[in-house]
Amino acid sequence: MRLAQHMSVASDRVRSTAIEATEFPELARAYQVMGVPKVVINDRVQFEGAVPETEFLGAVLQAVEGS
Amino acid sequence: MSILNDRDRAAVRKEFEKLAGPVKLVVFSQELVAADLCRQNEQLVREVAELGETITVEVLNPAIDRERAEGYGVDQVPAIVVEGARDYGIRFYGIPSGYEFSNLIDAIIVASTGESALSEDTKASLRALTADVEIKVFSTPT
Known about the structure:
- Chain A is an alpha+beta fold.
- Chain A is built from 3 helices and 3 strands, in the order αβαββα.
- Chain B has one domain (6-127): Glutaredoxin, CATH 3.40.30.10.
C-alpha cells in the first residue's frame, strides 16, 4: 500500500484503497485474492507480493495503456 | 481499554514529528452493518489522532451522510479517508492493523507533507498520466 498511497499524493489521477481481505471476503473472492499483498489496478492488471517502485509503476502504466 | 500500547504510542509520536500541514481522517461507520469492527476502527483512529496535533477526525455514517459518502466514493464500512491539503484519494477499508497500521501512519504523514517519497522519474511518469488509475491493495492483518 505504501507505494500506492505515495502515487496518490504524487498524482491527482491516482486513487488507492487498502482493503483488509478478511473483513471483506466478498471483495477478496471477487478479485480472487489467494496471497497478499495483492494489487489490482483499474481491474485490468494485477500482481501478488511486494515489488520495487519501477515494477509497480510499470503495472500502473500497463493498466492505463490504450485508455 | 486502549488499542495502542505505550510502545506503539511512542513509536507513532516519533513518526508524527514529520507532520507538516493538517490532516483530516474521515471515518465511515455504520453500526447496523458492522458494529464491532466500526467501533474498533473509530477508536483506533481517535487514538492515532490524539498523537498528532495537526490531525482531526470526522465520523460519517454512509446511510445518513449519503452524499458525502458518495463524494468520497466510499461504499464499504468500516472505512477511513486520509485527507491532507486536498483529498489525495487514499482510502482504507477495514481496520488497519498489522502492516496496514504502519501504512496508515505513513499515509497520514505523506498527506500532511504533500510530498511523496517516490523517485523523480516515477513522479514525472505519474504527472504525465492522461487516464485515471484506481489501485486496490488487498492485505490481511498478519
